[in-house]
User: What shape does this take?
Amino acid sequence: MKNHQYVTRSTAIAARALGDETMVMSATNSTLFTLDEVASVIWAAADGVTPLEEIVVNKICAQYDIAPGTALQDAQTLVEQLAGHGILLLSDQPLVPSSVSRKEAR
Amino acid sequence: MAADFPAQEDDLPSVTAATQARSVVVEIGNLPIRLRCGSPDFIRQIHERYAGYVSSSDKAKFEFEIELAPHGTLSGDEDARVTWDSGRWLMERGDFRAEWNPSTDKGHIHQTRSPYSLDSVLRIVHTLLLARDGGFLLHASSAIRNGRAFLFSGVSGAGKTTMVRLAPPDAALLTDEISYVVRQDGRYSAVGTPFFGELARVGENLRAPIEVLYLLAKGPENKIEPIDGADAVRGLLGNILFFARDPEFVKMVFDAALDFAARVPVRRLTFVPNSFVWELIV
Assistant: This one.
């Protein structure tokens, strides 16, 4: 049986969509990433409960002229890179968002 | 209350003056910080270093006690580290260790006798204070002309100091190195700072709404090009002073940069280093 891959955005980031791009800043080391149009679609859909394969089929292949196998391979490479930078979390189980921690006055 | 600083400690005529001699209020961007130190000589150095920014008022919202380290006990040229720990900001570099408690607005600085160590601590503290209200410090020179502030940003060597050196006589220098950006009522203003670079000149203690942020590039001709969206934010974030590697702080600065880029025109200024470039700055 094939395992699903689930993705969710790290809470230690700041992000904002600007046009077709998404700017993401790592809150741990302030590194800035710019996601292109397709990567932004995956980023926006990374809710932790939708399998990556489903995101690719429903959000990427439905919108762009790309073969599902190629799209999934590209998407896996992307999410692994983003996970390597700590701004995206990967799991073979659905990822439940953690509760928001109490903020201290700074 | 006397505003003038006595030349010698022995000349102090009263207890009030003696107290003043051991503290000074430095006010940058409407944020008065009282600096206390047991050494009247160091207080005198602060008066000289921050001329134009020493407040005549005795009131200060923020306070730091400065402890001077004996010669040779602190040194180094490493990068500053700023961390949030147990309700305090900790700031450390080879030549200083400091902490600041935002809930009491009080802090402590252990540093060398160099006013430049204090200068670095003040820059860090102001980045922390500004971030709370959507402001920031930017690697940029800035000047006021016709009541409007123009910012010229870029990395070292991009031409920040050159731009203000070339400024016409009617332009007021705010800084040649670190621009002080405040947000108030949804609008951004630039404020003069005593933080200088190659020009070695303290900026005028003035404030004006920001008209344009120029990202500098040297080239064969003078030209201005608009920069939109993500490119503007990238250019801005690349020049904002980030000391604190702290998630909450980073998010605040990120949001501030996005808001600024949405409200203030950001343009690319390619220029030949001569005074004609200022004909474009209108």
